[in-house]
Amino acid sequence: MFSAIGQQALLSMIVHLCFIAVTWWALQALNFQKLLRSNAVLQARVLYILLTIAIGSVVSNFFLDYLVFAKQLPYIFNQ
To answer: 65 lies in which domain range?
Structure first.
């Protein structure tokens, strides 16, 4: 029982990091220089990191929830 919890925790951490990395890669296609001030480099980098974490976390939570729901589908037919 505890090993299953540990495996799910490890899977969640890996999925979160993967989707954050994919989000970082995808956000590099956007041109943020038009939206931000030219003298606020540090603030722009922090915003970029926070956007990456926020979007990556939302997408990975969706993926993990979908995975859990898919695992629970067989219980519909067991009465």
So the answer is: 2-76
Instruction: Give 5-17 pLDDT, tens digit per residue.
Output: 899 999 999 999 9
Question: Can you read off the two tokens belonging to residue 16?
Answer: 């979160």
* Site of tokens 């939570």: 61
User: Which residue type, as a one-letter code, is found at position 17?
Assistant: L
- The Cα 52–Cα 19 span in angstroms is 9
Tens digit of each residue's pLDDT (9 = 90 or more) over 45-72:
899 999 999 999 999 999 999 999 999 9
Domain count within the chain: 1
Give pTM, 2 decimals.
0.83
**Alpha-carbon separation of residue 15 from 45, 53, 76 (angstroms):** 23, 13, 27
